[in-house]
Specification:
Layout (H helix, E strand, L loop, with lengths): L5 H8 L6 E2 L5 H11 L11 E7 L1 H16 L4 H7 L8 E7 L9 H21 L3 E5 L7 H6 L7 E11 L20
Antiparallel strand pairs: 1-5, 2-3, 3-5, 4-5
The structure holds flavin mononucleotide.
Length: 187
């Protein structure tokens, strides 16, 4: 969809990239991406999120944690064999953790939504810096053994694994054939 406003252009034409290679976001760009995450709406500013960032050998460590979790969960052989390579689908992976804080006012679900909104925010910030990214879940997002492998507490929950890097190949244009009226109802 053509749009002259750069912010709207980013929102209207954002695409996920499955194929990502080096370079990963530089340290400066990663700092900007994380700064953008810190600007998500956050009820009572509880900061109910944290980010586990992997690149280089960190990707190996993350892959081994996935493999140990796959073994512990008795996943099929194929899944175990693939697990250690999963993070290597991009040069940088951010595991986004919802880390709810005690609150009488803000529900755990609100806090998880807040954390989840950092994933898209970071994907968009990365896109603005000319990187590509994809928000993934997969079995690891629900596997408590994997959570423990990463040192998460019982109250914490992974809400996304954001894979970031440089897109390889041509990006398909975002589809604009859907009709907003199929999704909205005036009350
Ligand atoms: C919570 C969540 C989890 C997702 N998990 C996966 C996943 O594990 N694997 C995958 O290929 N896409 C996953 N997706 C979808 C991709 O992020 C992406 O939206 C999809 O490939 C469509 O591409 P597009 O964003 O360019 O429309 C997930 C999306 C969300 C919101």
């Amino acid at each position: 969809m053509d749009c002259l406003n750069p912010a709207l252009d980013l929102l209207l034409n954002r695409r996920s990239c499955h194929q990502l290679s080096r370079p990963a976001p530089s340290d400066n760009d990663l700092a900007l991406i994380l700064q953008a995450a810190l600007r998500v709406p956050d009820f009572q500013r509880l900061r109910p999120f944290r980010f586990l960032v992997a690149r280089d050998e960190g990707l190996d460590r993350l892959g081994l944690a996935m493999q140990r979790a796959a073994l512990a969960a008795e996943k099929p052989e194929k899944v175990v064999a693939r697990a250690s390579q999963m993070p290597h689908r991009a040069p940088l992976v951010i595991v986004v953790v919802a880390s709810p804080k005690p609150s009488d006012k803000v529900s755990v679900f609100d806090q998880q939504l807040c954390a989840a909104s950092t994933v898209l925010t970071m994907q968009l910030a990365a896109r603005a810096l000319n990187y590509g990214g994809i928000w993934r879940s997969g079995w690891v997002m629900y596997d408590r053994g994997f959570h423990r492998e990463l040192g998460l507490t019982d109250s914490e929950q992974i809400v996304g694994l954001l894979y970031l890097g440089t897109p390889t190949g041509d990006e398909e244009p975002a589809s604009s054939t859907e009709n907003i009226h199929d999704f909205m109802t005036w009350l």
